[in-house]
Design a protein that fits this description.
mainly alpha; 10 helices
Length: 252
């Protein structure tokens, strides 16, 4: 799995040269700007509402009053940390929902970019077919909905675990890897569908190559630490890097 994670990471760095060489910027900048604007607005409203939600819950169950009554520094620290990790889990959960919303919204561009990348790599031409593009979009939407359902189940379980002092501290890390896997899965599936794998076969394939999905999703998330530029480039880089990494596995 580690080897596949490295391949996925390397593919991100190779994506820049590939985009530059084949003049794909026009398919990246526009959708990236839209993604960035939605991301900024969404994060602002989520962060303010999540703080209010955690404070309301703490007040309702009487946690604040109990901690003030106990006046125990260790207990206060443990529950402070639990609240922090709860907010992190909620942030990842929000980002998960936002990500799937944009996957559905941007499915035409993602499907086209994956097809264009594969055509260049393989030296072939995939004739444009609106019917095929529509089929790719519909499959991408169905997969995004399927993955969002499973991820919501996992995230809800982790949300409950995060409420436990100490034991809940590892939940953001677990949640991050779950997020990376499912996002990378969605990016890889555009290529797998084009290679005539059914949805079930695609699920099995990615299950055998988890490293490609995790590595792809991990770099996607890390790019968000680069304000604005990283947000603009992250979605398109993810789909191009996924196509590049699958091509490496296929020709190895």
């Amino acid at each position: 799995m580690l080897k596949e994670i490295i391949i996925a990471i390397q593919s991100y760095f190779e994506a820049y040269g590939f985009i530059q060489k084949h003049r794909l910027w026009k398919w990246i900048i526009g959708p990236g700007i839209i993604y960035s604007l939605l991301f900024i607005v969404g994060i602002y409203y989520f962060w303010t509402s999540s703080n209010e939600a955690v404070s309301w819950l703490s007040h309702k169950i009487g946690l604040e009053a109990w901690l003030q009554q106990e006046r125990n520094a260790l207990l206060s620290f443990l529950f402070l940390m639990a609240g922090l990790f709860l907010r992190l889990i909620l942030l990842l959960f929000y980002f998960s929902l936002f990500k799937y919303f944009f996957l559905i919204l941007g499915s035409p561009i993602f499907a086209y970019l994956s097809e264009k990348t594969a055509a260049i790599l393989e030296g072939t031409d995939f004739p444009f077919s609106f019917k095929q593009l529509a089929a790719d979009m519909w499959r991408g939407i169905k997969l995004a909905l399927r993955n969002s359902l499973w991820q919501t189940i996992y995230m809800f379980s982790l949300l409950l675990l995060s409420l436990l002092p100490v034991a809940g501290w590892i939940t953001p890390l677990i949640a991050l890897f779950v997020e990376c896997y499912y996002y990378g899965f969605s990016m890889l599936d555009y290529s797998l569908e084009r290679n005539k794998l059914s949805a079930g076969e695609s699920i099995n394939y990615v299950g055998r190559h988890k490293g490609l999905a995790i590595g792809n999703g991990l770099l996607f998330y890390l790019m968000h630490f680069v304000p604005v530029l990283g947000w603009v480039l992250a979605p398109a880089y993810a789909v191009i890097a996924a196509t590049l990494s699958l091509h490496k596995i296929k020709t190895a």
